[in-house]
Amino acid sequence: MGKSFVTPPGITCFPSLFKPGAAVEGAEPKYAVTILLNKDDAKVQAWIPTLATAISEAITATWPDEASRPKNLLKCIKDGDTFTDRDGNLKKASYPEFANCYALDARTKKRPKIVGPNGLELLDESEIYSGIIGAAAFHLYSFDNVTKGVNAGLECFMKVADGDPLGGGGSINPQDAFADLIAANAGATQRAAAKVGAELFQ
């Protein structure tokens, strides 16, 4: 394992930290998380050049001959403004949170340690969701398979603070959403109870 890096705090996306998930159908399930780092954040601006240098060094170490180096090497960090999915669609079109952010993807086969804002281990799965503010510790490693590039090996994750759930999950009160149905059911229940009571005392 090489040098460890720690991201500045960012928006957490697609966390699979308690149970491994497959990036695509048929792929090996891994624990993973994506951290969105705001380009306007001064800490991010200071940190990105360090990571970029480390990725360049990892590429040079694995493929020293620039002339024969594979083209279009995959990297663990992408520009959220230009990042496209496997169908060529801009990621930010489906997930506006990617706009004006760098997206760092970190994965591991071994379940990572997860801590809360106080540094104590976090065991409640409901505390981890897309939208929380989090930071990831990771190391870089090159891979030279069918695809080639530099990945981030997730070591541990910290939940820094709660945030707005991405996609709107959990943002609406169910009593408000289903008010009409609740009222209708309550009316039906009251009518049924009245009928039973009337029959009982006939």
Structure characterization notes:
The chain is α/β, with parallel strands linked by helices and 202 residues long. It folds into 2 domains: 4-171, Beta Barrel (OB fold (Dihydrolipoamide Acetyltransferase, E2P)); 173-202. It is built from 4 helices and 9 strands. The chain has a 5-stranded mixed beta barrel. 24% of the residues are buried. The model has no long low-confidence stretch (mean pLDDT 88).
List keywords for this structure.
alpha/beta; about 200 residues; OB fold (Dihydrolipoamide Acetyltransferase, E2P); five-stranded mixed β-barrel; 2 domains
The CATH topology of the largest domain is: OB fold (Dihydrolipoamide Acetyltransferase, E2P)
- Compute the average pLDDT: 88
Order of strands, main sheet, comes to 2-3-6-9-8
The beta-strand count equals 9
Largest sheet: 5 strands, mixed, barrel
The proportion of strand residues reads 25-35%
- Spatial extent as radius of gyration: 24 Å
Number of domains: 2
End-to-end separation: 82 Å
Overall shape? elongated
Query: Could you state the order of secondary-structure elements as H and E?
Result: EEEHEEHEEEEHH
Structural class: alpha/beta
- What's the CATH H-level superfamily name of the largest domain? Nucleic acid-binding proteins
Number of helices: 4
Can you give the helix content as a percent range?
Answer: 25-40%
CATH class (first level) name of the largest domain: Mainly Beta
Query: What is the annotated CATH architecture of the largest domain?
Result: Beta Barrel
Poorly predicted ranges: none
